[in-house]
Amino acid sequence: MEIFLIPILTGLFGWMLIWLLAKSLFFPTKAIQIGGFSWESNLSRLINQFPVELLIPNETDNEASFKAMQPLMEEKLDFFFNDTIKDKLPMMSMFIGDKTVAQLKSVFLEELASIFPQIIGQFAQNAKMNISKSLAAKLSDTIAPIVMKAIKPIQWAAFILGLCWGGLMLFFLHSF
Fold this sequence. Notes:
Blueprint: H1 2-26, E1 32-34, E2 37-39, H2 42-49, H3 59-88, H4 90-93, H5 98-150, H6 152-175
Antiparallel strand pairs: 1-2
């Protein structure tokens, strides 16, 4: 029985080595501090290093996006001035005519055009933080079971290789 112990243990070592390698890709999803050492998964580290800014529109895209959304904003402002104000502030609606609504709408659109890049920039910063925090956990939950299932043949190959290596070690230990 003792003669089989070395090959089986080296085979199990190969099996566990492949298993730990695959697990280190996905776990832990949040960095763990141990003394002065920080430990986090390779996937989390890659996602945190990914330049999310590439996905965020730049200033020229902001202008194009604003122009594309302008008809919707005009429609919503029309509804606000013509319907919402009449319902919520009926006294004020008596003093607002079509000319005033058109002037207010143009002033609001100018103001929205000037603050739109700031809003998008702030939204992009918040989105970057949210992406970095949640993407690693979501990908780990989705991809980890697939990868762990896919590495089973590699684990068996590592076990057999370890078994052979243990057999060679046993052969050389007993022959000399």
